[in-house]
Amino acid sequence: MSATRDGLADGAAGTELSDFRAALRRWLEEEQSELQPYRALTPDLDEQFALFRGFSARLYAAGWVRRGWQEEFGGLGGSGLYRGVLAEELAMAGYPLHNFHGLKEVLGPAVARFGPNIASWALPRLLSTDDVWCQGFSEPEAGSDLGSLRLRAESAGDHWRVNGQKVWTSGARYANRCVLLARTGTREEAHRGITALFVDMDAPGIAVRDLRAMNGDSEFGELFFDDVLVPKDRTIGRVGDGWALAMYVLSSERGAWAWERQAWLHRRFRELLERNDADPRATSFAGDTFALLYAMRLVSRRSIYCLARGEEPGAASSVDKVLMASTEQAIFDGYLELFPHAALLDDDRQSDAWRSEFLYSRAASIYGGTGEIQRNLIAERLVGLPREE
Amino acid sequence: MRNDEREMLRSGLQRVLIESEPGSVGKALREFGWIDLLLHEPAEAVASLFEFQGATSMTSPMLDVVMFQPLADLVGTDLTKETVGLIAPGPSRGTLPTSLLADGAVAIDGIASAEIGTCDWIAVPAIADGELVVVIVDGPLDTLSCEPVSGLDPWLRLHRIGGTVTAHTIVRGGEAAARWSAATAAGRRALAHELVGGARAMLALAVEHASTREQFGRAVGTFQALKHRMADAKVNLTAAEAAVQESWVTMDATSALLAKLWAGRASGVGAKHAQQVLAGMGFTWEHPFHRYLRRAVLLDATLGSSRDLAVELGARLVRDGLPQVLVDL
Prior knowledge:
The complex is a heterodimer of chains A (389) and B (329).
Chain A: H1 14-30, H2 32-35, H3 45-61, H4 81-92, H5 99-114, H6 116-127, E1 133-136, E2 152-156, E3 159-170, E4 177-183, E5 194-200, E6 206-211, E7 220-231, E8 235-236, H7 242-274, H8 281-308, H9 316-338, H10 340-344, H11 349-361, H12 371-383
Parallel strand pairs in A: 1-4
Antiparallel strand pairs in A: 2-3, 3-7, 4-5, 5-8, 6-7
Chain B: H1 3-19, H2 25-32, H3 34-40, H4 42-56, H5 62-68, E1 84-86, E2 99-102, E3 105-112, E4 121-128, E5 131-138, E6 145-148, E7 159-166, E8 169-171, H6 173-212, E9 214-215, E10 218-219, H7 224-250, H8 253-282, H9 289-301, H10 306-320
């Protein structure tokens, strides 16, 4: 029965994917000593970024990160599933998937879909890591209620004049481009009056301030826009298309991101199993958590199949997100429960990295739409309950 | 199978279940050709029958046939011509057999869905000297006791089987473990479909109620507290559906275990939340909910509850480590 595998975009047959997987594994083995430094887990963000950039350059030069992206955008073509295999093999071989990597998956496909004219020059630079993108969506007054965002873009001849503020922007201090949601219509138009812009982060009038998260990282930033001029040819898609783009980004952030996370979480889960703990709680933790990982893998696979066919998973990706949050939190809760001494007291780099991931996992049910928003979407769009008046 | 063919098959099958007397469902399904379907398109046969059973809380004796199939070649049984039964351990903690084999005779203590007295062949997993064995008994037999089980779900039409009979064929050692594992996996896949059918039906009952029942001047389904219950039921159901589908792709014991585990969870979570959403209505005898609840609890406990299965899986993971890649892209 291969119903779930039917109709992939370019007929990437299972054998092509497994050939790709085998070749990638071979390469990772051959280059193992050269690539060893990129396996390092460090809580230091600057180090993480440097490692990500170095590793991405190697992966780009060898062509691995270009598979599964369209040729007109600097890729080597083929089904988007190649990207899914890449993420998985890297995770299983012990290379951490930094958020920078995830951001490519979250933002790249949306810009390719809605703004091909921009993607044709910008995506190749994203893939080669010459450019780093960030996501300007949330605002202090627009979190779960993203449709009420206020950052304004006013028409000024050939330019948009942008004023306002963004928050919770991952990788803001490292990014040189931003996919920005701006209000071009009235407040009353709500989600219909939103337009997406592709903004250079060095444009005059943009200020970035670090936002230190509870794990101590400044992975997030705040963006301030003061009369920033953005050329109109940097409009992604048409004026008013911003909400559709945002929904596409969010379904990638729930679906494709969940696939990347499950790859990494399998890796972390394996490490916990290998600590070979005699605690009877380990048995029940292992069974429950593996069942969650298995479901997360199956359900997010469905989403990346859907994305690879060029379709939008829509509200179905909210299921991925709920499962992802449960799984991620279960793994790191389990770590704390089974290895309290290391988790709570030890100051070596390993324990530090685990601790940082434990703290970061608390956000899994918040970012990309809170667990409550996901459940509203599931109840209204998938289950068919009436909307609130 | 094409979609229109599948639709035709499913509506035919459903008519058979709806129109047959409870005691003659097995015979009617045989005449319909369900056994042929099981042999040639097992996924379709099991999905169409067991999901409909779950959706309607109807029943058939076909779980025995599904579980017997991986054993049929031991005695050269032609399932299309001969009738078979399988006496499994009833719901209990763990999944170890409760029948005992000694001196070529098997003391049977177990549960079956088929009319054991009229079966041509009966399979019994048993314990002999502390080891698992699979015993095949030559029927028909009128020496076994066969009591209808009432219990929590009398509509499931189970029978409690007891008595001592001579074994026809005994399989021991690694072969017995492999055979019983295959039979268990087949049974778990079928039960997973049935549990998923029931979980969908309970969710549908709750959604229907929540969309029409008004309190405080609005449909109760507009309240977020209810929405989140239904959303959690849907998340578990989606996971179960994916796991059940995958179990037919990989066709191994682990994927069957995970399908049953998730289906049991989905039906447990679904029953709990549907009960709360249905509130007073769902607590009446008249409302169909209690039939689904009874079925959900009983089927979850059969061949390993979701809790048992998580522990079984966890013990294996702690011992053997994580399988390389369980589900391919």
